[in-house]
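Q: Got a minute? One more chain.
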Amino acid sequence: MPATRVAVVDDHQLVRIGLKQIIESQADFAWAGEASNGREALALLRAAPCDVLLLDLSLPDMSGLDVLRQIKAHHESVATLVLSAYPENQYGLNVLRAGASGFVSKTADDAELCRAIRAAVRGGRYVSPELAEMLVSGMQGAPGPGEPRHSVLSEREFQIFCKLAEGKSVSEIAAKLFLSVKTVSTYRTRILEKMGMKTNADITYYAIKNNLVQ
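A: Always. Here it is, folded:
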């Protein structure tokens, strides 16, 4: 069986070096390249084949979720594992809804990361028991005990929620996502209702408090 080709997208060189060492230490893995931002990641996938992509959520030029969506649209065969320092309970559900093959914390050990890669290349999803429970609750349409309020948002709602939290206007979001202003305005109203909020300032405060934006 050919080795699993693994590429890494992270804006920190030391992280990329460490991950390369882990990949090259495994007999069934092969290093497929690296990128330091979203645009480089998409160029890398166009130029060199890979089976699994380790993707950081926090990139300097694009949101990791936006990169993930483009990968699923144009490189569907690539299994993407989100590797992030963000709390799993804050982002886990949304990256899975966006098409990720799993969410791995940067605090995970080598063995856990390798298990996640092997699960992803087999076509499975890697989730912790805690995230699995959140998935069940999220499918039922309501957050369970201890789950964040934003877990009730759909993938598109969460995408718009994050852009509102960053201070983007409805018209700016509409242009970025190729939606009408009316559609984005409707999403905003729905988000406020689901989250029990009244203003964009409430959204920004919540997002900062829960480490959803920097």
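A: The chain has two domains: 4-136, 153-209.
Q: Perfect, thanks.
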